[in-house]
């Protein structure tokens, strides 16, 4: 639980508390190759986490229509204060793009989910005598229970 810091303003302490309540993901808790779907007010981004703060991100028609290697700085509340290596609901994602001098700041994050590829469904057959053939299942997105248990993803109350 966050304890307000006496040297920080009430607004800053309030933002920190709000980020704890609304939830998000700390990049330090993610293994490489984790795929995150980040829904903002205006776009849905896909970020393949590569380690440290590096990710392949796509989802913006101008800045990253195709995956591009970026450095995720963290999330802001819309000002200059940054929560490092954190992607939080209600905040703005900030990342460094190799083709731009200043960081890219997204619209407010509405949801952060880990994308889970469930693989193949081998239970479907077309007739009793047919050979079972795997069919690709759609990729589903979900906040993973193990991540919830570790506190990486926080459930909103």
Model description:
By secondary structure, the protein is mainly beta. The chain is 12% helix and 39% strand. Strands 2-3-4-5-8-9 form a six-stranded antiparallel barrel.
- Alpha-beta classification: mainly beta
Portion of residues in beta strands equals: 35-45%
Main beta-sheet strand count, sense and barrel state: 6 strands, antiparallel, barrel
Please give the count of helices: 2
Low-confidence stretches: 122-157
Order of helices and strands: HEEEEEEEEEEEEH
**How big is the Rg?**
19 Å
From the spread of the alpha carbons, the general shape counts as globular
Helical residues, percent: 10-25%
The overall pLDDT average reads: 78
Ends distance: 15 Å
Counting DSSP E segments of at least 2 residues, the number of strands comes to 12
Strand order of the largest sheet: 2-3-4-5-8-9
Give a summary of the structure in a few sentences:
The chain is mostly beta strands. 12% of the residues lie in helices and 39% in strands.
Set out the fold topology.
Elements: H1 10-22, E1 24-26, E2 35-40, E3 44-51, E4 54-58, E5 68-76, E6 82-84, E7 86-88, E8 92-96, E9 104-116, E10 120-121, E11 135-136, E12 140-142, H2 145-150
Antiparallel strand pairs: 1-7, 2-3, 2-9, 3-4, 4-5, 5-6, 5-8, 8-9, 9-12, 10-11
Which descriptors would you attach to this protein?
disordered C terminus, 157 residues, single chain, 2 helices, mainly beta, 12% helix, 6-stranded antiparallel β-barrel, two-stranded antiparallel ribbon
């Amino acid at each position: 639980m966050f304890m307000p810091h006496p040297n920080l303003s009430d607004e800053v302490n309030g933002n920190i508390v709000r980020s704890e309540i609304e939830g998000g993901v700390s990049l330090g808790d993610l293994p490489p190759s984790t795929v995150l779907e980040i829904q903002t007010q205006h776009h849905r981004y896909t970020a393949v986490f590569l380690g440290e703060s590096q990710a392949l991100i796509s989802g913006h028609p101008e800045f990253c229509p195709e995956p591009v290697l970026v450095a995720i700085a963290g999330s802001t509340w819309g000002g200059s204060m940054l929560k490092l290596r954190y992607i939080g609901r209600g905040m703005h994602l900030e990342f460094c793009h190799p083709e731009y001098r200043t960081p890219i700041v997204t619209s407010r994050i509405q949801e952060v989910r880990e994308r889970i590829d469930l693989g193949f469904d081998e239970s479907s057959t077309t007739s009793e005598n047919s050979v079972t053939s795997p069919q690709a299942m759609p990729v589903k997105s979900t906040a993973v229970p193990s991540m919830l248990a570790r506190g990486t993803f926080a459930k909103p109350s």
